[in-house]
Amino acid sequence: MNKEKKLILALETSCDETSASVVADGRAILSNVISSQVPVHQKFGGVVPEIASRKHIENVIPVVDKALQDAGITLQEVAAVGVTYGPGLVGALLVGIAAAKALAFAAQKPLIGVNHLEGHIFANFLAYQELEPPFLALVVSGGHTSLVHVQGYNQFHLLGQTRDDAAGEAFDKVARVMGLPYPGGPQIDKLALLGNPEAIHFPRALSTHGSHEFSFSGLKSAVLNYLNTAAQHRQTVNYADVAASFQAAVVEVLAAKTVEAAKECGVDKIVVSGGVAANSCLQSILSREAVSAGYAVYFPPSVLCTDNAAMIASRAYYKFVGGFTADLHLNAVPGLKL
Length: 338
Ligand code: KG4
Ligand code: ZN
Hints:
The chain is of the alpha/beta class. The chain has 2 domains: 7-122 and 305-321, Nucleotidyltransferase, domain 5 (2-Layer Sandwich), CATH 3.30.420; 133-300, Nucleotidyltransferase, domain 5 (2-Layer Sandwich). The protein contains 11 helices and 10 strands. Helix 3 (90-107) links the parallel strand 4 and strand 5. The longest helix has 27 residues, at 239-265. The structure holds 5'-O-[(R)-(carboxyoxy)(hydroxy)phosphoryl]adenosine and zinc ion.
């Protein structure tokens, strides 16, 4: 089987998921094992870096073993080993990098360092077999909010990003003050279904035409002020309305700026990725606006929106065929840019 296909084994340990995956020719997932640390970090209300590193050390080898087993292959059958080397938590990244180096060295296979943000974009190649660049990508995760013109498989142009909080970070922080568990994004998404998105007008920052930058910290402060003022006046708060109104403010800006950037790039496709791409309101509003402006729009299924190694394997495959391999000096770059 698989003789002529190029199989990539990839590892992802940049934050709080330990994941390993085998992907064929950058497009077909043979396995995608994700060991989530969410229950471990939940009691702290967010990711504790030191605990994340320790959990990755415990999990990384069993997760790799399971990924190879689920794919029905041995390490010798892989063409290359890919690994996320940034951006992310330095200790967490180093665990994946050390493991990937050891596997590549032992099996005498090329090592490929992958940018986590590029990986998020490539999740869409796994979900949509016909999808090809060029397109406009919106990456919305817990750490990033970026608009990227993807001109080719190895050619990216960053148009703009957030000046302060990432969209997912704003979701998590607002959820936390509302007493919802970490990660807050999915909780707000669910609660917002019961609320009125027009109940409270929260600010839409940097919504001027032509700016590809985002800012969510003012919005987060506006929600905190709203809740504090209500508490001081002993007013009861409709949390579903707060969730729906906050979410509407985030989504409106994301959707408008994404469609505007797509127009400017002259592409006909919009690709969304990262944890916040799983948001139901973003999916419906951005799909509606993009389609009415004449764009095809792509969202990965939820499991490929949040962190996973399959997207890293897809990205690694295209670097591998482009000749972009790393050596055993590959190091973690916590602030790695696109
Ligand atoms: O991509 P990801 O798994 O990790 C990073 O690279 O940051 O994204 C995690 C982020 C968290 O902030 C989480 O709250 C958010 O994605 N998220 C969501 C939803 N699902 C996950 N935000 C809004 N709505 C969702 N349904
Ligand atoms: Zn991510």
